[in-house]
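In this supplementary section we document a worked example of the pipeline. Step one takes a protein sequence of length 178 as its only input; no multiple sequence alignment statistics are reported here. Step two produces a three-dimensional model, which step three serialises into structure tokens for compact storage. The input and output of this example are shown verbatim.
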Amino acid sequence: MPELEPHYARVPLELRPAVVRNPVHVVLDNLRSAYNVGSIFRTGDAGAVEHIHLCGMTAHPPHIKLQKTALGAFEYVPWTYHERTVDALDALGKQGIHRVAIEVVEGAASLMEFPWPKPAAIVFGNEVAGINERVLDGCDAVVAIPMMGHKNSMNVATAFGVVLYEILRGWGALPRTP
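The serialised model returned by step three reads:
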């Protein structure tokens, strides 16, 4: 039986309706897994993020593993590759975009209590080492997702989805019904 393409895949990019983007920039600091990056692209599309900034060793198109999980989302979610994460953060800061690191560190604000500025850039770090200290220093705030188990972290793509939808909920940007 032939596999059916999703309905959007049959419509050329130039004929698809424009997406009203939410003022969320996503900064990925040296993510190791192209699969996580692809998943972040898909979730970023679902939440209509403004832009994804791929930094350092983070996989960027064209990349076969990224293509497998992104399912083409990198074709219509705006993205840029930066060699250095601090350069991406500097550029965002000059645009007046508040930069928020998502990291479990002492003194981090709770995700559920943080007053999310608009626009915002959310910064996610390496799956093992976290966010580089120089990158943390370039952020305006640090926010942590509350952890209740033995581990103090979760998968970066999962964390991105949790944070993105909490921001959109807080802004009142989520539709009432699907």
